[in-house]
Amino acid sequence: MDSISIILRRPPYGTADASEAVRHALGGVIEDMAVKLILVDGGVAIAKKGQNTDSTEYLNMESGVVDCIDMGAEVYADRMSMEEACLEVKDLIEGVRIFDSAEIADIISNSDTTMIF
């Protein structure tokens, strides 16, 4: 089985990066790939529970992350990025795993393909 690491560095709203990362993650799962969605820098905010986009034109990215997890993608949040974003484990969607930078580097180095958003 091919594997792909999809790294999201941008916040969930304001650009298409987060929605594209989730779209590619779901596409990879559908194509029977081992998908690792890796959230770093502003990307960790996509994993926050309780996102409310009702007063915006954006799709709620929380549901996209839940779909990724439910379909079998592994979702990782960088511990240092979480601290910088003032996020704690209790703030995150269930199923998101918190790893440090060295562990994330190992995941990426063991992937066949890497995409960065």
Q: What is the structure about, briefly put?
A:
The protein is α/β, with parallel strands linked by helices and 117 residues long.
What is the number of E strands?
A: 5
Order of helix and strand elements from N to C terminus: EHEHEHEHE
| Count of alpha and pi helical runs | 4
Mean pLDDT: 95
Which strand order spans the largest sheet, edge to edge or round the barrel? Answer: 4-3-2-1-5
CATH superfamily heading: DsrEFH-like
Rg from alpha-carbon coordinates: 13 Å
Structural class: alpha/beta
Cα shape: globular
| Proportion in helices | 25-40%
Q: Could you name the ranges where pLDDT drops below 50 across 5 or more consecutive residues?
A: none
- What fraction strand? 15-25%
Q: How many strands, what sense, and barrel or not for the largest sheet?
A: 5 strands, parallel
CATH topology, anyone? Hypothetical Protein Ychn, Chain: A
Assign the CATH class: Alpha Beta
Give an account of the 3D structure:
This protein has 117 residues and is of the alpha/beta class. The protein has one domain (3-116): Hypothetical Protein Ychn, Chain: A. It has helices spanning 17-30, 61-71, 79-84, 101-109; strands at residues 3-8, 34-39, 74-78, 97-99, 113-116. A 5-stranded parallel β-sheet has the order 4-3-2-1-5. Strand 1 (3-8), helix 1 (17-30) and strand 2 (34-39) form a beta-alpha-beta unit. It is globular, with a radius of gyration of 13 Å. The two termini are 23 Å apart. The mean pLDDT is 95.
